[in-house]
Design brief:
globular, 528 residues, single chain
């Protein structure tokens, strides 16, 4: 295959045997991954929590510092995409299908099995929404933001190669061009494959849940879910071939429009006043309790510790495993924005939107559960459709939700194939179609194997295991970014005129790609 790198073959050498293992012996794969998950969450759950918290503090500190005025690109560069298109793409790629899957299911689960309160109580309802805010708020977007910022800075301002290892040049020097760089990029690609496979597995399960709720005779099982994965794989490969400016951008915009329509439907047909109050109350509680929730591990309370490991540690691992894909994609569409503008946009807007989403869907779900709807008794993938059954025109809403799930599904997957292709191509350049197709088929196969071998627990386990080594890479990326920014020597109150590369030599701050003048991934060409 043209323009592939050693990373492509090394990552395939890790992922393909895993897929074959699942095909030939799904039982032993499930046992091995569960044992690995138990070991990691028991011994290193604290590490996931600290990593996410450190990245959040760092993102806010960089935006507030004098470095916030530095552009992710040349000083004369300006954003390629409008604010609306930018928000739509980063949000759809970042967590769109997950919000639809967990929007009702997670708050209802917390309501009946809260971390500390009496199940079904008023305090349990408050905790349910507050922890949903927490799991989908500032921390995950900070993980994305730090890595995306480092990638955009390295590519567009310094002209380093467009890979994860390229962002580590300030701390690793020319070693990023050798075997060490290959190892780092391979870790990133493998983490991305399993992070995306987790989301594809969740999406397939929820499409199955929707079909079971809307079509008589359709049950919930791996057969239907595998068929869904096969159909959606064809759709996202077609979309990926059309590139960012067409397939991904158009689908992202359509996702947002449809999501807003469904959001307004639930808001207007459920208890509108209570749902609006739920947002303001929960936002205040979230901000007040953020430090405690961020570092709580429950070391002396086995039940509390198990709850944190099952929810918070899983989520942080999922976001970490997703971060190479999401951050690479966000950096690709963020050239020309200042660090301050970038961090505010990536942290604040998605966090508020996620909070609104959970206030409406989660709040409506908790109210319905309290009134006896029995949502907690449904399979997790059917909770959203169970809520629609309690509302007028619920069937129409269910159909619209099915369309939204599929389009979010396709958007996330086609963005992922593009990013995986660029991460495994020479110098991180735009991938050949054969590479894109290969990764599309691989992540679909991984999702299928995980669903068959362990169901939803199996896909969750994959994220936790794959994220651990990449968490170390993320912390190194943060150190590298800070070192590079300190080399800029930005005078207080003035915009930077000259960028200084990691080797200490002055850069024109505007090299567009490598020295050969070719356009790396994310160089703002708008072509995939």
């Amino acid at each position: 295959m043209q323009r592939t790198s050693s990373v492509f073959w090394a990552a395939l050498a890790v992922v393909v045997p895993f897929v074959l293992w699942g095909v030939l012996s799904s039982g032993s794969l499930a046992t091995a991954t569960q044992e690995a998950r138990a070991f990691l969450v028991d011994r290193f759950g604290w590490f996931y929590l600290i990593t996410a918290t450190v990245l959040l503090i760092a993102a806010i500190a960089l935006a507030a510092s004098r470095f916030g005025r530095i552009r992710l690109g040349r000083d004369a560069d300006r954003p390629e995409y409008s604010a609306g298109a930018w928000f739509a793409m980063l949000f759809s790629a970042g967590m769109g299908v997950g919000l639809v899957f967990w929007g009702v299911a997670e708050p209802v689960a917390h309501f009946v099995t809260p971390p500390t309160a009496e199940p079904g109580s008023e305090q349990a309802a408050r905790d349910a929404l507050r922890y949903s805010f927490f799991h989908w708020g500032l921390h995950p977007w900070a993980i994305y933001a730090v890595l995306a910022m480092a990638l955009a800075y390295a590519r567009f301002r310094q002209g380093w190669k467009a890979t994860i290892s390229g962002a580590l040049r300030p701390v690793l020097g020319d070693r990023v061009d050798g075997p060490l760089g290959t190892v780092i990029d391979t870790v990133a690609v493998v983490a991305t494959v399993f992070g995306v496979a987790t989301s594809l597995g969740l999406g397939a399960a929820q499409v199955n849940g929707g079909l079971a709720a809307l079509v008589d005779g359709v049950g919930i099982g791996s057969g239907v879910q595998l068929a869904v994965i096969a159909v959606v794989t064809v759709l996202f490969l077609v979309s990926a071939m059309s590139g960012i400016d067409r397939g991904i951008k158009w689908l992202s915009t359509a996702n947002v429009v449809l999501a807003v329509a469904i959001f307004l439907f639930v808001f207007l047909t459920a208890s509108t006043g209570r749902l609006a109050g739920a947002f303001t109350t929960t936002l205040g509680g979230y901000l007040a309790e953020l430090p405690r929730m961020s570092l709580q591990t429950g070391p002396f309370d086995d039940e509390r510790s198990a709850w944190i490991n099952g929810w918070t540690v899983f989520y942080w691992a999922w976001w970490i495993s997703w971060s190479p894909f999401v951050a690479t994609f966000i950096s690709r569409i963020s050239r020309g924005r200042t660090i301050r503008e970038f961090v505010v946009g990536v942290l604040a807007v998605p966090t508020l939107v996620s909070g609104l989403w959970f206030s409406v869907f989660g709040g409506a779900g908790v109210l319905a559960e309290r009134d006896g709807a029995g949502l907690s008794e449904l399979p997790t993938e059917s909770a959203l459709f169970g809520l629609f059954d309690t509302l007028p025109f619920g069937v129409l809403a269910g159909v619209a939700a099915m369309v939204l799930i599929v389009t979010f599904f396709v958007t996330s997957a086609d963005s992922a194939t593009f990013v995986l292709g660029s991460l495994s191509s020479e110098d991180g350049r735009d991938p050949a179609r054969s590479v894109t197709v290969t990764w599309g088929l691989v992540i679909a196969a991984a999702a299928a194997v995980l669903l068959v071998s362990g169901g939803l627990e199996g896909v969750q386990t994959a994220s936790i295991v794959a994220a651990f080594p990449f968490a170390v890479v993320l912390l190194l990326v943060l150190v590298s970014l800070v070192r590079a920014l300190r080399g800029e020597q930005v005078p207080a109150g003035h915009r930077p005129a000259v960028a200084v590369a990691g080797d200490g030599h002055a850069s024109d701050g505007g090299r567009d790609g490598g020295s050969d003048g070719r356009d790396p991934v994310g160089a703002g060409s708008g072509k995939a």
